[in-house]
Amino acid sequence: MEYFVQQLINGVTLGSIYGLIAIGYTMVYGIIGMINFAHGDIFMVGAFISLIVITALGLAASSSIFIIILALILVLVCAMIISSVFGWTLERLAYRPLRGSFRLAPLITAIGVSIVLQNYIQISQGARVKPLQPIISGGHTIMRRVDENGEFVVQISNMQILIITVTIVLMTVFSLIIARTSLGRAQRACEQDRKMASLLGINVDRTISTTFVMGAALAAVAGLMYLLYYGVIDFYIGFVAGVKAFTAAVLGGIGSLPGAMLGGLVIGLIETLWSAYFSVEYKDVAAFSMLAIVLIFLPQGLLGKPEVEKV
Amino acid sequence: MSSPPLLQIRDVETFYGKIQALRGITLDVHEGEIVTLIGANGAGKSTLMMTICGDPRARSGQIVYDGRDITRLPTHEIMRLRISQSPEGRRIFPRMTVNENLLMGAAVADPEHFEEDAARAFELFPRLKDRKDQRGGTLSGGEQQMLAIARALMARPKLLLLDEPSLGLAPLVVKQIFEVIKELNEKQGLTVFLVEQNAYHALKLAHQGHVIVNGKITMSGTGAELLAREEVRAAYLEGGAH
Protein backbone atom coordinates (compact mmCIF):
# COMPACT_ATOMS: atom_id res chain seq x y z
CA MET A 1 0.00 0.00 0.00
CA GLU A 2 2.71 2.46 0.99
CA TYR A 3 4.72 1.44 -2.00
CA PHE A 4 1.70 2.09 -4.24
CA VAL A 5 1.11 5.54 -2.80
CA GLN A 6 4.74 6.41 -3.38
CA GLN A 7 4.51 5.30 -7.01
CA LEU A 8 1.31 7.27 -7.40
CA ILE A 9 3.09 10.43 -6.30
CA ASN A 10 5.95 9.74 -8.69
CA GLY A 11 3.53 8.99 -11.51
CA VAL A 12 1.54 12.17 -11.04
CA THR A 13 4.76 14.18 -11.10
CA LEU A 14 5.90 12.61 -14.34
CA GLY A 15 2.39 12.92 -15.75
CA SER A 16 2.39 16.65 -14.99
CA ILE A 17 5.45 17.14 -17.15
CA TYR A 18 3.93 15.10 -19.98
CA GLY A 19 0.67 16.98 -19.65
CA LEU A 20 2.38 20.36 -19.99
CA ILE A 21 4.05 19.24 -23.21
CA ALA A 22 0.94 17.51 -24.51
CA ILE A 23 -1.01 20.77 -24.43
CA GLY A 24 1.24 22.19 -27.12
CA TYR A 25 0.58 19.23 -29.40
CA THR A 26 -3.12 19.28 -28.88
CA MET A 27 -3.58 23.02 -29.35
CA VAL A 28 -1.57 23.21 -32.53
CA TYR A 29 -3.36 20.17 -33.88
CA GLY A 30 -6.69 21.71 -32.97
CA ILE A 31 -6.05 24.92 -34.80
CA ILE A 32 -4.19 23.84 -37.94
CA GLY A 33 -4.68 20.09 -37.96
CA MET A 34 -0.99 19.37 -37.92
CA ILE A 35 1.20 17.37 -35.56
CA ASN A 36 4.11 19.60 -34.69
CA PHE A 37 6.77 16.95 -34.26
CA ALA A 38 9.31 19.60 -33.34
CA HIS A 39 7.36 20.41 -30.18
CA GLY A 40 9.35 17.93 -28.08
CA ASP A 41 12.50 19.72 -29.14
CA ILE A 42 11.09 23.05 -28.00
CA PHE A 43 10.74 21.38 -24.61
CA MET A 44 14.42 20.37 -24.87
CA VAL A 45 15.41 23.91 -25.82
CA GLY A 46 13.46 25.15 -22.81
CA ALA A 47 15.43 22.81 -20.56
CA PHE A 48 18.72 24.06 -21.99
CA ILE A 49 17.78 27.71 -21.64
CA SER A 50 16.84 27.00 -18.02
CA LEU A 51 20.19 25.33 -17.42
CA ILE A 52 22.07 28.23 -18.97
CA VAL A 53 20.21 30.83 -16.94
CA ILE A 54 20.59 28.84 -13.71
CA THR A 55 24.32 28.49 -14.32
CA ALA A 56 24.65 32.16 -15.18
CA LEU A 57 22.89 33.12 -11.97
CA GLY A 58 25.19 30.83 -10.00
CA LEU A 59 22.22 29.26 -8.29
CA ALA A 60 22.95 26.47 -5.81
CA ALA A 61 21.15 24.64 -3.06
CA SER A 62 23.07 26.65 -0.49
CA SER A 63 21.32 29.88 -1.45
CA SER A 64 18.52 31.01 0.78
CA ILE A 65 14.99 29.87 -0.01
CA PHE A 66 13.94 33.37 -0.90
CA ILE A 67 16.72 33.77 -3.45
CA ILE A 68 16.03 30.33 -4.93
CA ILE A 69 12.36 31.12 -5.46
CA LEU A 70 13.10 34.50 -6.97
CA ALA A 71 15.78 33.08 -9.23
CA LEU A 72 13.59 30.20 -10.37
CA ILE A 73 10.84 32.60 -11.33
CA LEU A 74 13.39 34.53 -13.35
CA VAL A 75 14.61 31.30 -14.98
CA LEU A 76 11.04 30.33 -15.76
CA VAL A 77 10.26 33.65 -17.39
CA CYS A 78 13.47 33.60 -19.44
CA ALA A 79 12.85 30.03 -20.59
CA MET A 80 9.25 30.77 -21.50
CA ILE A 81 10.10 33.90 -23.45
CA ILE A 82 13.04 32.46 -25.37
CA SER A 83 11.25 29.21 -26.15
CA SER A 84 8.26 31.21 -27.33
CA VAL A 85 10.53 33.05 -29.73
CA PHE A 86 11.66 29.67 -31.02
CA GLY A 87 8.06 28.50 -31.39
CA TRP A 88 6.99 31.68 -33.11
CA THR A 89 9.93 31.58 -35.50
CA LEU A 90 9.31 27.96 -36.43
CA GLU A 91 5.73 28.66 -37.30
CA ARG A 92 6.65 31.74 -39.28
CA LEU A 93 9.54 30.22 -41.21
CA ALA A 94 8.72 26.56 -41.54
CA TYR A 95 4.97 26.05 -41.28
CA ARG A 96 3.17 29.17 -42.44
CA PRO A 97 4.57 29.07 -45.99
CA LEU A 98 3.18 25.54 -46.26
CA ARG A 99 -0.32 26.39 -45.16
CA GLY A 100 -2.73 25.32 -47.87
CA SER A 101 -0.19 22.84 -49.15
CA PHE A 102 -0.90 19.10 -49.02
CA ARG A 103 -1.30 17.65 -45.55
CA LEU A 104 1.94 15.74 -45.37
CA ALA A 105 4.15 18.71 -46.21
CA PRO A 106 4.08 20.44 -42.81
CA LEU A 107 4.39 17.06 -41.10
CA ILE A 108 7.59 16.24 -42.93
CA THR A 109 8.82 19.78 -42.34
CA ALA A 110 8.16 19.35 -38.63
CA ILE A 111 10.38 16.29 -38.54
CA GLY A 112 13.03 18.29 -40.37
CA VAL A 113 12.71 21.15 -37.90
CA SER A 114 13.09 18.65 -35.07
CA ILE A 115 16.36 17.41 -36.54
CA VAL A 116 17.57 20.98 -37.02
CA LEU A 117 16.84 21.89 -33.40
CA GLN A 118 18.52 18.77 -32.04
CA ASN A 119 21.63 19.36 -34.10
CA TYR A 120 21.70 23.03 -33.29
CA ILE A 121 21.73 22.29 -29.57
CA GLN A 122 24.18 19.43 -30.04
CA ILE A 123 26.62 21.71 -31.82
CA SER A 124 26.14 24.79 -29.67
CA GLN A 125 25.91 23.02 -26.29
CA GLY A 126 27.87 19.86 -26.88
CA ALA A 127 26.70 16.29 -27.18
CA ARG A 128 27.48 15.27 -23.63
CA VAL A 129 24.94 14.95 -20.87
CA LYS A 130 24.65 18.14 -18.83
CA PRO A 131 24.25 17.69 -15.10
CA LEU A 132 22.73 20.14 -12.65
CA GLN A 133 23.33 19.98 -8.92
CA PRO A 134 20.05 19.59 -7.06
CA ILE A 135 18.74 23.00 -6.11
CA ILE A 136 15.56 22.08 -4.34
CA SER A 137 16.04 19.37 -1.81
CA GLY A 138 14.13 18.01 1.14
CA GLY A 139 10.68 16.57 1.37
CA HIS A 140 7.94 15.47 3.65
CA THR A 141 7.13 12.08 5.04
CA ILE A 142 3.47 11.39 4.60
CA MET A 143 3.34 7.71 5.58
CA ARG A 144 5.58 5.40 7.52
CA ARG A 145 5.45 1.69 8.18
CA VAL A 146 7.75 -0.48 10.20
CA ASP A 147 7.57 -4.27 9.90
CA GLU A 148 9.90 -7.26 9.83
CA ASN A 149 11.36 -6.06 6.49
CA GLY A 150 12.38 -2.79 7.99
CA GLU A 151 10.98 0.64 7.57
CA PHE A 152 9.12 1.94 4.54
CA VAL A 153 8.59 5.64 4.18
CA VAL A 154 6.33 7.39 1.70
CA GLN A 155 7.80 10.72 0.79
CA ILE A 156 6.79 13.62 -1.32
CA SER A 157 9.76 15.78 -2.15
CA ASN A 158 9.60 19.55 -2.32
CA MET A 159 10.49 19.22 -5.97
CA GLN A 160 7.44 17.07 -6.60
CA ILE A 161 5.23 19.51 -4.75
CA LEU A 162 6.65 22.30 -6.88
CA ILE A 163 6.07 20.45 -10.15
CA ILE A 164 2.52 19.43 -9.33
CA THR A 165 1.61 22.89 -8.02
CA VAL A 166 3.07 24.75 -10.98
CA THR A 167 1.30 22.37 -13.35
CA ILE A 168 -2.07 22.78 -11.66
CA VAL A 169 -1.74 26.55 -11.58
CA LEU A 170 -0.65 26.83 -15.20
CA MET A 171 -3.30 24.47 -16.48
CA THR A 172 -6.00 26.36 -14.60
CA VAL A 173 -4.82 29.70 -15.93
CA PHE A 174 -4.58 28.23 -19.37
CA SER A 175 -8.02 26.67 -19.36
CA LEU A 176 -9.45 29.98 -18.22
CA ILE A 177 -7.71 31.82 -21.06
CA ILE A 178 -9.17 29.40 -23.58
CA ALA A 179 -12.64 29.37 -22.07
CA ARG A 180 -13.15 32.99 -21.05
CA THR A 181 -10.97 35.48 -22.90
CA SER A 182 -11.45 36.89 -26.36
CA LEU A 183 -8.10 35.43 -27.34
CA GLY A 184 -9.24 31.97 -26.32
CA ARG A 185 -12.49 32.44 -28.16
CA ALA A 186 -10.63 33.50 -31.27
CA GLN A 187 -8.49 30.38 -30.97
CA ARG A 188 -11.50 28.14 -30.67
CA ALA A 189 -13.17 29.93 -33.57
CA CYS A 190 -10.12 29.38 -35.77
CA GLU A 191 -10.12 25.77 -34.72
CA GLN A 192 -13.76 25.29 -35.74
CA ASP A 193 -13.90 27.39 -38.90
CA ARG A 194 -10.90 29.41 -39.92
CA LYS A 195 -12.58 31.10 -42.86
CA MET A 196 -15.53 32.23 -40.77
CA ALA A 197 -13.19 33.54 -38.08
CA SER A 198 -11.48 35.74 -40.65
CA LEU A 199 -14.91 36.92 -41.85
CA LEU A 200 -15.50 38.15 -38.32
CA GLY A 201 -12.34 40.22 -38.36
CA ILE A 202 -10.08 37.74 -36.61
CA ASN A 203 -6.47 37.82 -37.75
CA VAL A 204 -6.09 34.09 -38.28
CA ASP A 205 -2.34 34.13 -38.87
CA ARG A 206 -1.76 35.98 -35.65
CA THR A 207 -4.03 33.65 -33.72
CA ILE A 208 -2.10 30.65 -35.01
CA SER A 209 1.19 32.29 -34.05
CA THR A 210 -0.15 32.94 -30.57
CA THR A 211 -1.09 29.29 -30.27
CA PHE A 212 2.45 28.22 -31.10
CA VAL A 213 3.80 30.73 -28.61
CA MET A 214 1.54 29.48 -25.83
CA GLY A 215 2.42 25.86 -26.51
CA ALA A 216 6.13 26.65 -26.56
CA ALA A 217 5.88 28.57 -23.29
CA LEU A 218 4.27 25.60 -21.56
CA ALA A 219 6.85 23.25 -23.04
CA ALA A 220 9.56 25.50 -21.61
CA VAL A 221 7.99 25.20 -18.17
CA ALA A 222 8.05 21.43 -18.60
CA GLY A 223 11.70 21.71 -19.65
CA LEU A 224 12.64 23.54 -16.47
CA MET A 225 10.72 21.04 -14.33
CA TYR A 226 12.40 18.14 -16.07
CA LEU A 227 15.82 19.68 -15.53
CA LEU A 228 15.21 20.30 -11.84
CA TYR A 229 13.64 16.88 -11.29
CA TYR A 230 16.09 14.65 -13.10
CA GLY A 231 19.17 16.85 -12.91
CA VAL A 232 20.52 15.74 -16.28
CA ILE A 233 19.61 16.79 -19.78
CA ASP A 234 21.01 16.31 -23.26
CA PHE A 235 20.07 17.37 -26.75
CA TYR A 236 18.03 14.21 -27.27
CA ILE A 237 15.55 14.40 -24.37
CA GLY A 238 12.99 16.11 -26.59
CA PHE A 239 12.48 13.04 -28.69
CA VAL A 240 11.32 10.54 -26.07
CA ALA A 241 9.49 13.11 -23.98
CA GLY A 242 7.91 14.50 -27.14
CA VAL A 243 6.70 11.11 -28.30
CA LYS A 244 5.30 10.37 -24.85
CA ALA A 245 3.52 13.69 -24.70
CA PHE A 246 2.19 13.16 -28.19
CA THR A 247 0.91 9.77 -27.04
CA ALA A 248 -0.69 11.52 -24.09
CA ALA A 249 -2.40 14.02 -26.39
CA VAL A 250 -3.76 11.28 -28.64
CA LEU A 251 -4.77 9.15 -25.69
CA GLY A 252 -6.72 12.03 -24.16
CA GLY A 253 -8.27 12.95 -27.50
CA ILE A 254 -6.21 15.15 -29.75
CA GLY A 255 -7.58 18.67 -29.94
CA SER A 256 -8.99 18.49 -26.43
CA LEU A 257 -7.28 20.49 -23.72
CA PRO A 258 -8.56 18.55 -20.70
CA GLY A 259 -7.80 15.44 -22.72
CA ALA A 260 -4.14 16.40 -22.99
CA MET A 261 -3.92 16.89 -19.24
CA LEU A 262 -5.68 13.63 -18.50
CA GLY A 263 -3.63 11.79 -21.12
CA GLY A 264 -0.41 13.10 -19.61
CA LEU A 265 -1.48 11.92 -16.20
CA VAL A 266 -2.46 8.47 -17.48
CA ILE A 267 0.79 7.99 -19.39
CA GLY A 268 2.84 9.16 -16.41
CA LEU A 269 1.01 6.76 -14.10
CA ILE A 270 1.19 3.78 -16.43
CA GLU A 271 4.89 4.30 -16.93
CA THR A 272 5.65 4.66 -13.25
CA LEU A 273 3.43 1.84 -12.05
CA TRP A 274 4.69 -0.48 -14.76
CA SER A 275 8.28 0.26 -13.79
CA ALA A 276 7.44 -0.31 -10.15
CA TYR A 277 5.59 -3.59 -10.45
CA PHE A 278 6.84 -5.15 -13.68
CA SER A 279 9.96 -4.02 -15.43
CA VAL A 280 11.61 -0.70 -16.02
CA GLU A 281 12.87 -1.86 -19.41
CA TYR A 282 9.36 -2.30 -20.73
CA LYS A 283 7.84 0.94 -19.43
CA ASP A 284 7.78 2.54 -22.88
CA VAL A 285 6.21 -0.58 -24.34
CA ALA A 286 3.51 -0.35 -21.69
CA ALA A 287 2.81 3.29 -22.42
CA PHE A 288 2.61 2.81 -26.17
CA SER A 289 0.56 -0.39 -25.86
CA MET A 290 -1.94 1.59 -23.87
CA LEU A 291 -2.13 4.03 -26.75
CA ALA A 292 -2.71 1.23 -29.23
CA ILE A 293 -5.47 -0.25 -27.09
CA VAL A 294 -7.23 3.07 -26.64
CA LEU A 295 -7.01 3.84 -30.34
CA ILE A 296 -8.53 0.49 -31.24
CA PHE A 297 -11.48 0.74 -28.89
CA LEU A 298 -11.88 4.51 -28.58
CA PRO A 299 -10.40 6.10 -31.71
CA GLN A 300 -11.27 9.65 -30.70
CA GLY A 301 -9.38 9.28 -27.41
CA LEU A 302 -10.64 9.49 -23.86
CA LEU A 303 -12.08 13.01 -24.03
CA GLY A 304 -12.03 13.59 -27.77
CA LYS A 305 -15.03 15.30 -29.26
CA PRO A 306 -17.44 13.07 -31.10
CA GLU A 307 -17.48 13.75 -34.80
CA VAL A 308 -21.24 13.89 -35.15
CA GLU A 309 -22.50 17.39 -35.70
CA LYS A 310 -25.69 18.76 -37.08
CA VAL A 311 -25.23 20.68 -40.26
CA MET B 1 -28.33 59.40 -56.40
CA SER B 2 -26.02 62.24 -55.57
CA SER B 3 -23.76 60.73 -52.94
CA PRO B 4 -21.23 58.14 -54.06
CA PRO B 5 -22.30 54.53 -53.50
CA LEU B 6 -21.32 52.79 -50.27
CA LEU B 7 -20.02 49.85 -52.24
CA GLN B 8 -18.71 50.12 -55.77
CA ILE B 9 -17.74 47.01 -57.66
CA ARG B 10 -15.93 47.65 -60.93
CA ASP B 11 -15.07 45.02 -63.56
CA VAL B 12 -14.22 42.44 -60.94
CA GLU B 13 -12.84 39.14 -62.17
CA THR B 14 -12.19 36.23 -59.85
CA PHE B 15 -10.61 32.88 -60.59
CA TYR B 16 -10.39 29.55 -58.83
CA GLY B 17 -7.11 28.37 -60.22
CA LYS B 18 -7.68 28.47 -63.98
CA ILE B 19 -11.44 28.56 -63.77
CA GLN B 20 -12.93 31.98 -64.08
CA ALA B 21 -15.86 32.44 -61.73
CA LEU B 22 -16.57 36.16 -62.19
CA ARG B 23 -16.28 37.75 -65.63
CA GLY B 24 -16.24 41.45 -65.02
CA ILE B 25 -18.89 42.30 -62.46
CA THR B 26 -19.88 45.93 -62.05
CA LEU B 27 -22.52 47.08 -59.62
CA ASP B 28 -23.23 49.68 -56.96
CA VAL B 29 -24.83 49.46 -53.56
CA HIS B 30 -26.05 52.80 -52.26
CA GLU B 31 -26.42 53.61 -48.63
CA GLY B 32 -29.79 52.64 -47.19
CA GLU B 33 -30.69 50.33 -50.05
CA ILE B 34 -31.37 46.65 -50.30
CA VAL B 35 -29.64 45.37 -53.41
CA THR B 36 -30.11 41.81 -54.49
CA LEU B 37 -28.24 39.55 -56.82
CA ILE B 38 -30.14 36.56 -58.07
CA GLY B 39 -28.92 33.66 -60.09
CA ALA B 40 -28.76 29.92 -60.36
CA ASN B 41 -26.42 27.58 -58.54
CA GLY B 42 -22.83 28.12 -59.57
CA ALA B 43 -23.50 31.43 -61.30
CA GLY B 44 -20.95 33.17 -59.08
CA LYS B 45 -23.15 34.73 -56.40
CA SER B 46 -21.24 33.46 -53.39
CA THR B 47 -17.95 34.04 -55.16
CA LEU B 48 -18.85 37.71 -55.49
CA MET B 49 -19.77 37.86 -51.79
CA MET B 50 -16.47 36.33 -50.81
CA THR B 51 -14.51 38.45 -53.28
CA ILE B 52 -15.90 41.57 -51.61
CA CYS B 53 -14.41 40.18 -48.40
CA GLY B 54 -11.08 39.50 -50.05
CA ASP B 55 -11.19 35.69 -50.03
CA PRO B 56 -10.62 34.79 -52.85
CA ARG B 57 -9.10 38.04 -53.97
CA ALA B 58 -10.19 39.66 -57.23
CA ARG B 59 -7.62 39.08 -59.94
CA SER B 60 -8.59 42.30 -61.66
CA GLY B 61 -11.04 45.13 -61.16
CA GLN B 62 -11.69 47.27 -58.15
CA ILE B 63 -13.85 47.19 -55.05
CA VAL B 64 -14.37 50.50 -53.27
CA TYR B 65 -16.16 50.64 -49.95
CA ASP B 66 -16.98 53.89 -48.24
CA GLY B 67 -14.53 55.75 -50.45
CA ARG B 68 -11.71 53.33 -49.77
CA ASP B 69 -10.19 50.80 -52.15
CA ILE B 70 -10.44 47.47 -50.35
CA THR B 71 -9.53 45.21 -53.27
CA ARG B 72 -6.16 44.26 -51.87
CA LEU B 73 -6.86 44.36 -48.13
CA PRO B 74 -6.66 41.13 -46.13
CA THR B 75 -10.03 39.70 -45.13
CA HIS B 76 -9.80 40.43 -41.42
CA GLU B 77 -9.00 44.08 -42.12
CA ILE B 78 -11.93 44.45 -44.52
CA MET B 79 -14.24 43.02 -41.88
CA ARG B 80 -13.06 45.68 -39.45
CA LEU B 81 -14.50 48.39 -41.70
CA ARG B 82 -18.05 47.63 -40.57
CA ILE B 83 -18.86 45.18 -43.31
CA SER B 84 -20.47 41.98 -42.02
CA GLN B 85 -21.26 38.81 -43.82
CA SER B 86 -23.71 36.08 -43.03
CA PRO B 87 -22.15 33.54 -45.34
CA GLU B 88 -23.43 30.69 -47.44
CA GLY B 89 -24.11 27.65 -45.29
CA ARG B 90 -24.36 29.90 -42.19
CA ARG B 91 -21.04 28.71 -40.75
CA ILE B 92 -22.09 28.83 -37.12
CA PHE B 93 -19.33 27.77 -34.75
CA PRO B 94 -20.80 24.40 -33.78
CA ARG B 95 -18.98 23.89 -30.50
CA MET B 96 -19.62 27.37 -29.17
CA THR B 97 -22.76 28.46 -27.43
CA VAL B 98 -25.17 30.88 -29.05
CA ASN B 99 -23.86 33.57 -26.74
CA GLU B 100 -20.26 32.83 -27.68
CA ASN B 101 -21.16 32.92 -31.36
CA LEU B 102 -22.55 36.40 -30.75
CA LEU B 103 -19.39 37.35 -28.88
CA MET B 104 -17.40 36.26 -31.91
CA GLY B 105 -19.58 38.48 -34.07
CA ALA B 106 -18.72 41.34 -31.75
CA ALA B 107 -14.99 40.62 -31.91
CA VAL B 108 -14.35 43.82 -33.84
CA ALA B 109 -16.88 45.91 -31.93
CA ASP B 110 -16.48 47.87 -28.73
CA PRO B 111 -17.03 45.35 -25.91
CA GLU B 112 -19.08 47.94 -24.05
CA HIS B 113 -21.84 47.58 -26.62
CA PHE B 114 -22.14 43.85 -26.25
CA GLU B 115 -24.99 43.59 -23.77
CA GLU B 116 -27.03 46.18 -25.59
CA ASP B 117 -26.43 44.63 -29.02
CA ALA B 118 -27.11 41.11 -27.78
CA ALA B 119 -30.38 42.30 -26.27
CA ARG B 120 -31.33 43.81 -29.62
CA ALA B 121 -30.44 40.57 -31.41
CA PHE B 122 -32.62 38.58 -29.02
CA GLU B 123 -35.44 41.03 -29.61
CA LEU B 124 -35.12 40.40 -33.33
CA PHE B 125 -34.91 36.64 -32.89
CA PRO B 126 -36.55 35.69 -29.57
CA ARG B 127 -35.90 32.01 -30.20
CA LEU B 128 -32.19 32.60 -29.86
CA LYS B 129 -32.66 33.93 -26.37
CA ASP B 130 -34.10 30.62 -25.19
CA ARG B 131 -31.12 28.85 -26.70
CA LYS B 132 -28.52 31.27 -25.38
CA ASP B 133 -26.34 28.66 -23.68
CA GLN B 134 -26.92 25.92 -26.19
CA ARG B 135 -24.18 24.93 -28.59
CA GLY B 136 -24.50 26.29 -32.11
CA GLY B 137 -24.26 22.83 -33.63
CA THR B 138 -27.43 21.69 -31.87
CA LEU B 139 -29.65 24.41 -33.34
CA SER B 140 -32.11 23.77 -36.16
CA GLY B 141 -31.34 25.13 -39.62
CA GLY B 142 -33.66 28.09 -39.15
CA GLU B 143 -32.21 28.94 -35.77
CA GLN B 144 -28.71 28.71 -37.19
CA GLN B 145 -29.67 31.14 -39.93
CA MET B 146 -31.07 33.53 -37.36
CA LEU B 147 -27.89 33.20 -35.36
CA ALA B 148 -25.76 33.82 -38.46
CA ILE B 149 -27.63 37.07 -39.13
CA ALA B 150 -27.59 38.06 -35.47
CA ARG B 151 -23.86 37.37 -35.31
CA ALA B 152 -23.26 39.51 -38.38
CA LEU B 153 -25.22 42.37 -36.80
CA MET B 154 -23.11 42.28 -33.64
CA ALA B 155 -20.31 44.13 -35.42
CA ARG B 156 -22.70 47.08 -35.95
CA PRO B 157 -22.23 46.93 -39.70
CA LYS B 158 -22.93 49.69 -42.18
CA LEU B 159 -23.14 47.09 -44.93
CA LEU B 160 -24.61 43.66 -44.38
CA LEU B 161 -23.81 40.94 -46.88
CA LEU B 162 -26.36 38.13 -46.80
CA ASP B 163 -25.64 34.97 -48.72
CA GLU B 164 -28.75 32.87 -49.35
CA PRO B 165 -30.43 33.31 -46.01
CA SER B 166 -33.42 31.27 -47.21
CA LEU B 167 -31.50 28.18 -48.27
CA GLY B 168 -33.00 24.98 -46.97
CA LEU B 169 -35.48 26.65 -44.65
CA ALA B 170 -39.19 26.14 -44.18
CA PRO B 171 -41.33 28.77 -45.98
CA LEU B 172 -42.55 30.21 -42.71
CA VAL B 173 -39.03 30.72 -41.43
CA VAL B 174 -38.00 32.24 -44.76
CA LYS B 175 -40.82 34.71 -44.47
CA GLN B 176 -39.79 35.60 -40.94
CA ILE B 177 -36.17 36.14 -41.95
CA PHE B 178 -37.08 38.36 -44.87
CA GLU B 179 -39.30 40.40 -42.58
CA VAL B 180 -36.37 40.96 -40.28
CA ILE B 181 -34.19 42.08 -43.19
CA LYS B 182 -36.87 44.53 -44.25
CA GLU B 183 -37.22 45.84 -40.73
CA LEU B 184 -33.47 46.32 -40.32
CA ASN B 185 -33.36 48.25 -43.55
CA GLU B 186 -36.39 50.41 -42.89
CA LYS B 187 -35.95 51.13 -39.19
CA GLN B 188 -32.18 51.27 -38.87
CA GLY B 189 -31.29 52.29 -42.40
CA LEU B 190 -29.01 49.30 -42.74
CA THR B 191 -27.62 48.77 -46.21
CA VAL B 192 -28.05 45.19 -47.37
CA PHE B 193 -26.52 43.29 -50.23
CA LEU B 194 -28.50 40.11 -50.61
CA VAL B 195 -27.64 37.12 -52.72
CA GLU B 196 -30.51 34.74 -53.35
CA GLN B 197 -31.85 31.86 -55.34
CA ASN B 198 -35.25 32.58 -53.93
CA ALA B 199 -35.83 35.29 -56.52
CA TYR B 200 -39.41 36.13 -55.66
CA HIS B 201 -38.82 37.09 -52.04
CA ALA B 202 -35.55 38.81 -52.80
CA LEU B 203 -36.85 40.94 -55.65
CA LYS B 204 -39.96 41.91 -53.74
CA LEU B 205 -37.79 43.23 -51.00
CA ALA B 206 -35.02 44.86 -52.99
CA HIS B 207 -34.69 48.41 -54.26
CA GLN B 208 -32.24 47.27 -56.89
CA GLY B 209 -31.82 43.86 -58.44
CA HIS B 210 -29.29 42.19 -60.68
CA VAL B 211 -29.30 38.83 -62.39
CA ILE B 212 -26.06 36.92 -62.65
CA VAL B 213 -25.48 34.18 -65.20
CA ASN B 214 -22.15 32.43 -65.59
CA GLY B 215 -20.19 35.09 -63.76
CA LYS B 216 -21.74 37.99 -65.67
CA ILE B 217 -24.56 40.36 -64.87
CA THR B 218 -27.17 39.99 -67.56
CA MET B 219 -30.01 42.12 -66.28
CA SER B 220 -30.40 44.96 -63.84
CA GLY B 221 -33.28 47.06 -62.65
CA THR B 222 -35.45 47.82 -59.68
CA GLY B 223 -36.84 44.83 -57.87
CA ALA B 224 -40.30 45.42 -59.27
CA GLU B 225 -39.01 45.81 -62.83
CA LEU B 226 -37.14 42.53 -62.72
CA LEU B 227 -40.08 40.75 -61.20
CA ALA B 228 -42.16 41.87 -64.16
CA ARG B 229 -39.63 40.74 -66.77
CA GLU B 230 -40.63 37.69 -68.73
CA GLU B 231 -37.09 36.22 -68.80
CA VAL B 232 -36.76 36.51 -65.05
CA ARG B 233 -40.10 34.89 -64.43
CA ALA B 234 -39.29 32.07 -66.79
CA ALA B 235 -35.83 31.39 -65.45
CA TYR B 236 -36.16 32.04 -61.73
CA LEU B 237 -39.79 32.00 -60.78
CA GLU B 238 -40.97 28.82 -62.42
CA GLY B 239 -43.26 26.89 -60.19
CA GLY B 240 -44.70 30.17 -58.97
CA ALA B 241 -44.08 32.25 -55.91
CA HIS B 242 -43.45 30.50 -52.65
From TrEMBL, chain A:
Bilayer-spanning residue ranges: 12-35, 42-59, 65-90, 102-121, 161-183, 204-229, 285-303
Broad class of the protein's primary localization: membrane
InterPro entries registered for this protein in UniProt: ABC_transp_permease, BCAA_transport_permease
Protein localization: Cell membrane
Protein's membrane topology: Multi-pass membrane protein
Xref: Pfam families: BPD_transp_2
This protein's UniProt keywords: Amino-acid transport, Cell inner membrane, Cell membrane, Membrane, Transmembrane, Transmembrane helix, Transport
Family: Belongs to the binding-protein-dependent transport system permease family. LivHM subfamily.
Protein's UniProt name: Branched-chain amino acid ABC transporter permease LivH
Organism whose genome encodes this protein: Hoeflea poritis
Source taxonomy: Bacteria, Pseudomonadati, Pseudomonadota, Alphaproteobacteria, Hyphomicrobiales
UniProtKB/TrEMBL annotation, chain B:
Domain of life: Bacteria
Family named by the database record: Belongs to the ABC transporter superfamily.
Molecular functions per Gene Ontology: ATP binding
Residue stretches making up the ABC transporter domain: 7-239
Extent of the signal sequence: none
PANTHER family recorded: HIGH-AFFINITY BRANCHED-CHAIN AMINO ACID TRANSPORT ATP-BINDING PROTEIN LIVF (PTHR43820:SF4)
Pfam families xref list: ABC_tran
Keywords assigned: Amino-acid transport, ATP-binding, Nucleotide-binding, Transport
Keyword Transcription regulation listed: no
Name of the protein in question: ABC transporter ATP-binding protein
Gene3D superfamilies reported in the protein's UniProt record: P-loop containing nucleotide triphosphate hydrolases
